[in-house]
Design brief:
Helices cover about 50% and strands about 10% of the residues. The chain has helices spanning about 1-15, 25-35, 60-70, 90-100, 120-125, 140-150, 165-170, 185-190, 200-210, 220-230, 235-245; strands at about 20, 40-45, 75-80, 110, 135, 155, 175-180, 195. Helix 8 links the parallel strand 7 (about 175-180) and strand 8 (about 195). The chain is globular, with a radius of gyration of 19 Å.
């Protein structure tokens, strides 16, 4: 993917007066792959829709809506994904199934993933744990916020992200996040996340184990996540973008 971009994008990007990107990690990638001078690039973080993604404090109502809309019950983990291999949601599913095979687990797994590969669906079918994994697609932001609010944690084990918007959405909803330290992810989440290690398969199993043993201080993570997400607004994004256009 990067090799193709290195062929197509540099001739165009060299003609631009200025470049706006969404993270310092992305800025470094642009400098390294496109040969653009650092002073020609500005980092403007994306925002989160705080009018939609916020903590819903009436947990009884949340549980009732989850059951009526999606036929799922708490507790569960959630992951928001697509079919890009770098998302590693397939690794999350296989780690979850491996844990289930030898351990009793409290949490179901909810996947907002519209196009999972058939090979993975076949593995789930053959595992005997199909009822524990729930797929949803084409849902609204309002319903996504509901799913975040009902989740005990949001897993985002991606190997590369230019920004990682699901991290912000989950944190804004008061949902603890589990992610990786690569690319932009630690830059966005900072200390408001549980971080996975490599190899990712074993690390996911370790984190699930720690959830089962109630090891984590989840309230501290929730508080940190809400505070961190509050720094990111689309209003700030728009204002800083306008400044760049006016001053370039």
């Amino acid at each position: 993917e990067h090799e193709k971009m290195k062929q197509i994008v540099p001739p165009f990007i060299q003609k631009c007066k200025h470049v706006i990107t969404c993270s310092n990690a992305s800025k470094r990638d642009i400098i390294e792959t496109m040969g653009i001078a650092p002073e020609k690039i500005s980092v403007i973080y994306w925002g989160v829709k705080h009018d939609i993604f916020y903590p819903q404090l009436d947990k009884v109502r949340v549980k009732e809506e989850l059951q009526s809309k999606f036929n799922i019950v708490t507790p569960y983990f959630i992951s928001v994904s697509c079919n890009a291999e770098r998302k590693r949601t397939d690794v999350l599913v296989r780690s979850y199934l491996a844990f289930l095979k030898y351990n009793r687990i409290t949490y179901d797994l909810v996947l907002v993933w519209g196009n999972p590969p058939q090979t993975l669906l076949n593995e789930i079918e053959q595992s005997g744990f199909k009822s524990r994994i729930h797929f949803f697609k084409n849902i609204s932001d309002v319903d996504l916020a509901l799913l975040y609010n009902g989740a005990s944690a949001m897993f985002f084990p991606s190997s590369y992200e230019g920004f990682g918007l699901p991290l912000l959405e989950a944190m804004a909803c008061g949902t603890p996040v589990v992610t990786c330290r690569n690319s932009s992810l630690a830059e966005i989440a900072e200390e408001a996340a549980i971080y996975l290690d490599e190899p990712i398969f074993e690390s996911i199993i370790d984190v699930i184990t720690n959830f089962e043993r109630n090891i984590f201080n989840l309230q501290a993570l929730i508080d940190k996540g809400i505070k961190r997400a509050a720094h990111f607004t689309w209003q700030k994004t728009a204002e800083k973008t306008i400044q760049i256009y006016c001053n370039t």
